[in-house]
Description:
Elements: H1 19-38, H2 43-62, H3 66-73, H4 81-88, E1 107-114, E2 117-124, H5 130-135, H6 143-158, E3 163-166, H7 176-180, H8 183-196
Parallel strand pairs: 2-3
Antiparallel strand pairs: 1-2
Amino acid sequence: xxxxxxxxxxxxxxxxxxxxxxxxxxxxxxxxxxxxxxxxxxxxxxxxxxxxxxxxxxxxxxxxxxxxxxxxxxxxxxxxxxxxxxxxxxxxxxxxxxxxxxxxxxxxxxxxxxxxxxxxxxxxxxxxxxxxxxxxxxxxxxxxxxxxxxxxxxxxxxxxxxxxxxxxxxxxxxxxxxxxxxxxxxxxxxxxxxxxxxxx
Length: 200
């Protein structure tokens, strides 16, 4: 993308300021592989490189310029809602549909366990490939997505479950289909109903 391109054998998407970090990680990976194939002990060299990598990561990510922070926020490899849900929660059960029109794949949600505590998790989900992004509408919900999220919040209220939302969207989808299915009304109803949710 910028400046030097990453090596072909490295599938990771790298920003310009991450190239030096990647070079050190490649050296570590190479030494680990050599230690397996040659039966030589490279633990000292690997340890030194890992220390250097940790120091450089801290220095690099603690001193990002404004544009570099934007690049990180838009990084194609950053985690999305389902990545967080899979890494933090157990027993996640995704629910589908708004019980009125259909299912919006830009909104994911359902009950899950956090350290044994039942919770309702709702998030906006983007895709990693073009086809996934198209199926998830690039993370821009339709009215049915907002209605689905409200249905899940009402369900959480009924069972006194805390609600966690993971919001990562450019905004509601502004197309003709959204207007035909009453986007403004869906957003207004959500705001009204969310303000009256009660637990216990």
